[in-house]
Fold this protein.
Amino acid sequence: MEWGMKNRLSRLFQADGHCFFLPIDHGYFQGPTRCLEQPGETIKPLLAYCDALFVTRGVLRSCVEPLGSKPIILRVSGGTSMAGKDLADEVITTSIEEVIRLNAAAVGVSVFIGSDYEKQTLSNLARLVNECENYGIPVMAVTAVGKEMEKREARYLALCCRIAAELGARVVKTYWCDKDFDKVVKGCPVPVVMAGGPKCETEREVMEFVYDGMQNGAVGINLGRNVWQSPHPVAMAKALHAVIHEKADVKKACGIYDEVKNKL
């Protein structure tokens, strides 16, 4: 592995090989998402617990302090919205020159396997890998399902992850599933990080699926709404950090959450 690629990946994955990515890119298709109306204010108290931010170039420039910033995973696909017909109809929105100019540690692109735009979004991924590998920039493939959340089952997710890895993604972001998640991870030859999907009903539910995913081979998380839409986001971030980097189990994580919540 070339020095630049290895250096960037080492900024994303900590010494234990694990990661806590904090996505705040939701506005690119959802608009001013609840609790993310002012992204800069939302993330300030959470930065101490995450390892990288997943963000669009617009929010990066306007809302993220460049001095001493966390590593940046730049969202580079888009072109659709919740108001449109199909979230899968994405294109690449950011040039490689912009990625370099913004000093991104990695880029993230969505792929929609099984949709009408499967070939288009996989072509987006392949072209991005071709460009980014020339500059030692890792590509994270996001196995998106648009509005069809029922697709989150192991056979489908394993298919998505393996295809993304085969096309050159250095990291794959996918959903956790409650059955055979280990098979999803084992079938993917690059690191797998867990997405959050819709906000969970309880804090314990979040701890449970993150802990289970880590036990079954995931290297970390890319969670947004289940962190910054929590009634106590700092407590949630600290508890999840403990699961990811301190091998905390669900009971200990919930204890950390309650302890921090009660102090705030």
The longest strand covers residues 106-111. The chain has one domain: 3-193. Residues 118-133 form the longest helix (16 residues). The chain has twelve helices and ten strands.
